[in-house]
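Reading a protein record of the kind used here takes only a little practice. The record below shows the convention in full.

——
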Amino acid sequence: MVSKRYPTSVEVARLAGVSQSAVSRTFTPGASVSARTRDKVLAAAETLGFQPSLIPRIMLTDRSGLVALVVGGLENAFYARVVQVFAARLREAGNQIVLVPVDSDYTLDAVAARLAQYRVDAIVSALAVLSQDAAETLSASRIPVVSFNTPVTAERIGSVGSDNALGGRQAAALLHDRGVRHPAFIAGPADSPASAERLAGFRDGLRAAGLPEPRVAGSAYTYEGGAEAAMRIRADAPFDGVFCANDLGALGAIDALRRAGRRVPDEVRVIGYDDIPAAGWGGYDLTSFDQDVPALVEAALAMIARMSGPETALGERVLIPPRLIERGSTRA
C-alpha cells in the first residue's frame, strides 16, 4: 500500500509566517482572525495542499458532519436508487457520506456492533434492524439510526418504509380484477420483514376478494431466486397470477415462465415491487409498486433531525404509501 504524508498546520504556519494558533483560527468558523492573516494562511494552505483534519473538531464538538450510509445488495437497482437520493440530499445539508458496504441486502443486525464504533452523527441504512438486541446495541451508542422496513424501534432507532401491507392488498385486488383465480406469491428470505408484510397484506386482500390462499415459495431477492421459485410453484400446481416480493424476482419469474411455455400476461399475470428501471423495459413491461424513494428520504432526514437533539428521543415508524404502476404484465 502506498502511504501518503499530509501537510501539517505547522508547515502552513511556517510558510505563511504566522503562529500555528492563527492557522487553527483561520479554519475555525467564527474564530477571530484578521483578514490579512487569513489571506496569508489560505494562500500557504493552497500551496501545500493542506486541508484541516476533522478529528480536532470532532473531539471538541462531538459532531463530525459525517453520516454513515449502510448499503448491501447493490446489484438491486432499488438500493442503488436509495443511495443516490440519500447522498444528494445529505450533501445539500452540508454532510459528508461514509459509505459502509455490507454483505447482507436486508438485515442490519450482523453489523450493529461495528457501526456503533463509528464517530458519525447519524446512521442511515437501507437494511432492516430485526432483533431487539441489535436495536439496543445501536441505541447504546446514542447515534440516531434510521433504517428501512424495520419492525423494531428503540431510543434513537427509527424506521421509514413502504406500506408493504397496503401494497399486498392492492396487488390482490388487481389480480382479482384481472380474472386471476389461482394466486401465488414469490417471497424473499424468510426473515425479511418487507416480504412478510407484503405477503400478509396479499393474503388479506385475497380473502377480501374471495380468492384462495396463495401458493408460496421463498427465494433470495435475486433474478435467479425468482426464476427458481416460479418453477417450484408450477411443479406443485398451476397458477394464473403471481405477486413477487421484489422486481428482480419478478423478472426471473417472467423469463422462467416463458421458457416453460407459459405466456405473460395471457396465461399468468405478474406483479413485482420496487419499480426498478428494468420493470419498464419492453421485454418485461412489469406491473410494480413505486416505493417513492424521495418521500422515504425526506421522512428519514426529518426523523434524524428530531432524534439528534439533546433530549431522549424514542424512535418511530413512518410508512409511505406505495404507488401501483400497472404495465403489460397484468393487462388483459
Notes: The chain has twelve helices and twelve strands. The chain has a mean pLDDT of 85.
